[in-house]
């Protein structure tokens, strides 16, 4: 399997002279800062105004219990490391993405403009956005946004949810009358597990501090990688069997059939490091990255399964940049959930 075929290709930056930015919003997390903005090109404008037809305003999403207008345009996504928040601010300023961007530059004393933002960073980094862009971050609750967004996607967008196992992706047909309740597992720097019972009805029931931030932080210490993407790419080149202790290593290459453990099952993540007469430098960075990715994914998958079992939930939806278009991570989560 070529891992690269699943990678997200970043949208090309819009040309300010031919596109019009309508909305900009931010999710500033502990590890990554995600930015989304909606653009329409000149083909959708008449005399500088958005082209609105009866079809635009009356066409609704099919199969949803709620009506949603269909917008003609493009959602653009960007991500930045949160520790490099100035890169995000520079991008917004250069592309004039914030509403009234050019006016703010010409009239720095004009009334500040608000944009929607969520995540802890919307509080931590509010001042730089106001000082450099004249923007007030209008803060929205992180969990409210997360659940509302997940419900919207599951109710409205076709081919949004899918299973992934054994290198095979299969889209799931969502029965709108049988969607709730479900467990939403959001994998960010840490992990939140939320029982969703309907629109506006949810409860955070569990979580774990071992998430994407753990992968990045420990991976950086073990491999000297400088970015999340670099670490993830490195992990695809590794072999965790060089670092992990497998059932077969304990049972002389045999399965432990009596309790259903194959010889290739991981008995102890990084377990070989305790018995091998090797130092850290003797292990390949890519093997350590692979072992780390598998350890964290297995842990999240098993905790998710146990919480679904605890609350009698028959569906688990995983989300977050940690798994987005990352086939090995998705496959490991699926194996962990289905193991039992």
From TrEMBL:
Keywords on this record? ATP-binding, Coenzyme A biosynthesis, Cytoplasm, Kinase, Nucleotide-binding, Transferase
Does the keyword field hold Nucleotide-binding? yes
What EC number(s) would the UniProt record show?
2.7.1.33
Top-level taxon of the source organism: Eukaryota
Please note every region of biased composition (Polar residues).
102-113
Q: Which NCBIfam families match?
A: panK_eukar
* Similarity annotation: Belongs to the type II pantothenate kinase family.
Can you say what this protein is called?
pantothenate kinase
């Amino acid at each position: 399997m070529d891992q690269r075929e699943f990678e997200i290709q970043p949208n090309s930056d819009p040309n300010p002279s031919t596109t019009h930015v309508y909305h900009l919003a931010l999710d500033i997390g502990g590890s990554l800062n995600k930015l989304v903005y909606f653009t329409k090109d000149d083909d959708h404008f008449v005399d500088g105004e958005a082209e609105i037809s009866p079809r635009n305003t009356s066409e609704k999403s099919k199969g949803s219990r709620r009506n949603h207008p269909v917008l003609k345009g493009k959602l653009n996504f960007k991500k930045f490391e949160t520790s490099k928040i100035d890169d995000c601010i520079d991008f917004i300023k250069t592309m004039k993405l914030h509403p009234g961007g050019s006016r703010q530059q010409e009239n720095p004393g004009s009334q500040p403009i608000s944009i929607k933002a969520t995540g802890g960073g919307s509080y931590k980094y509010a001042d730089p956005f106001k000082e450099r862009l004249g923007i007030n971050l209008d803060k929205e609750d992180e969990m409210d946004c997360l659940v509302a967004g997940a419900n919207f996607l599951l109710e409205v967008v076709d081919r949004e949810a899918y299973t992934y196992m054994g290198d095979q992706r299969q889209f799931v047909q969502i029965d709108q009358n049988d969607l709730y309740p479900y467990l939403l597992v959001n994998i960010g720097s840490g992990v939140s597990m939320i029982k969703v019972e309907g629109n506006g009805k949810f409860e955070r029931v569990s979580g774990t501090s071992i998430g994407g931030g753990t992968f990045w932080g420990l991976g950086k210490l073990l491999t000297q990688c400088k970015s999340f993407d670099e670490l993830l790419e490195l992990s695809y080149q590794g072999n965790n069997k060089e670092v992990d202790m497998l059932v077969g290593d304990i049972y002389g290459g045999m399965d432990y059939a009596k309790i259903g453990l194959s010889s290739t099952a991981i008995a102890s993540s990084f377990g070989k490091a305790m018995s091998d007469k090797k130092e850290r430098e003797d292990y390949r960075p890519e093997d350590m990255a692979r072992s780390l990715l598998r350890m964290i994914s297995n842990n999240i998958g098993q905790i998710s399964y146990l919480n679904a079992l605890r609350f009698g939930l028959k569906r688990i939806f995983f989300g977050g940049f940690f798994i987005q278009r990352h086939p090995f991570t998705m496959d490991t989560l699926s194996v962990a959930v289905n193991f039992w």
